[in-house]
Amino acid sequence: MSEDPRRPDEVVKYVHVPAQTRNTAANVVGSTLPMAAMFLRNKVVSWSALFIALQAYLNEPRFKPQNKDGPSQPGLMTVGFALLAVLTSYTDVLFPTPGVGKKIVPSV
């Protein structure tokens, strides 16, 4: 029981192969959802676009290998686009439309 059961002649050194980056659904949704939020001026859609864009930015690797599919949109640009969608959805708060929301009382 004192001898070592491992065989040094059969030891194989581990070589790490990094996983390839792939375009996930979060990247696609993170790019298109801010556009829909700006067109619809929907606050819920714009906030969800911002959170999805932040998640996609935080999940992308720091040093990306060159993508064979072509150039992809940078993560900070996606986050900035989603932030612009949030600001666009709140333009009615900053610049209210005159006459909207006023009650018209008919004269008798």
TrEMBL record:
PANTHER family: ADL329WP. Keywords: Membrane, Transmembrane, Transmembrane helix. This is Uncharacterized protein. One of its GO terms (cellular component) is endoplasmic reticulum membrane. It is found in: Membrane. InterPro entries: ASTER (IPR005351). One of its GO terms (biological process) is protein insertion into ER membrane. One of its GO terms (molecular function) is protein folding chaperone. The lineage of its organism: Eukaryota, Fungi, Dikarya, Ascomycota, Saccharomycotina. Pfam families: ASTER (PF03669). It comes from the Eukaryota. The keyword Transmembrane applies.
